[in-house]
Each structure stands twice: as structure tokens, then as C-alpha cells.
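hi! just following up on the protien thing from before. the input was this:
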Amino acid sequence: ASYTIAKRPPPKNITIDRLASEFGAVDFRLALSTFIKANIPRANIFPNQFDCFDLYKQIIITHPLNPYLGGQGVTSRIRTTPCIEAKGRKLESPAHFDTAFVIEDPVEYHAEGGIKGLRVAQVQAIFDLPSQFGFHPHPLAYVEWFTPLGRPDTFTGMHTVTRSTRQRRRNSAVVPVTQIVHGCHLMGKCGAEIDRGWTTDNVLEKAPHFLLNTYLHVDMFSVIK
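and the predicted 3d structure came back as:
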């Protein structure tokens, strides 16, 4: 897969406090520090509460040609936009933090393909690494992981996932955007009754379990099945 992104990130100088409150990136500082230690040789400067970041609103992922689609090109749009409050005649614009398949194990993914080495994550922020921390050739993404895919649900044939946690906090990471390989759609998994409090805008925060929708597009179906 390849990606397309804006030449310059429009939201600039976003503080770590705003990343937490508006973008839900509550462990951004820790996750970025972990990434820098693992990927930037000889790094000796790490993020603090006074650092600011330039963010992108979305990224477009272009997938390899799929023979089941007659060679037709397919793309995924991954949005990372916070809620914008109503102002004057403009109505409130809900937040969009889309979910995607992200490479968790590059060795397994490149060796076996398909969904091996992939994991579902919600993308909360896409940003450039500030130069004081070193150089990275691609933008980075702060993601929150869901649990690994298990066996498909016997009734729907879809995989069930939940939020992944670590030490009672959402399990998060910073990864290069080159590890985002495909957008995906999660649906809240209902019990005997449908929770009427769920909406398109809040279901990812309110539902405890999710079904990975494999039937949304032929490209997604062929990858998972």
C-alpha cells in the first residue's frame, strides 16, 4: 500500500494537553518517547509538556490492485478530526477518528500477507516528528489498539474485538503511517437488546465489544477471508 497526505499539516502547534483533550491521545507523550527510543539512533531529547505538534486531518491509503475487482484501484480514507462546536449558523461537526488495520508485526505481515501481523487500531492523530527529536522520513500516527483477531463469530462470520488495555489504560502506540494498510469498519456488538444510546458518533466509545465488518467492501472481504 502507498499513501497520500497533505503537503503541509493544517492544524499547527497543537499542545500535548490539546492532543489529550481534543484528540483523545491521552498517552501521547509516553507513546512517542517509546517510538523515539526504538527508532531514532542516539536520540537524547524526548517530549515534554511544552512541546507542540503539527497535525494532519486525514490520510488516503491506496491499496494494491485486487484481482477480484478487475484490477480496479481501491483507497481508504483515515480521518483524525476532533469535534468542532457549533458557532453562529454552523452546526456542530462531530469528531472522526477512524479505525484501520495497522501492521503490528512487520516480519509476520511481509512473510505471510493477508491479515497476519495486522491488528485493528483507532487512529487518533497523524503528525510530523518535530526536528528536535531527530529525523523520520514519514509522518507518524498515534493509535489505540483493539484486541487481536480471534475466531470469527459463529452466527455472523465476523471477528469480535474489544479495546486493548495495559495497566488499566488503553493500549496505545506511535507508528509510521506506512504501517497503516487498510481502513476498516467496526460495529457495536449487541446483546439481546440494542442500546439506544449508541450513535454513529459515539459507538466506538460506548460499546464494550465490536464486530469487524468484513462485508462492507469486496476488497476487505477478500483480504480477511
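The chain has five helices and 17 strands.
The longest helix spans residues 28-39.
cheers
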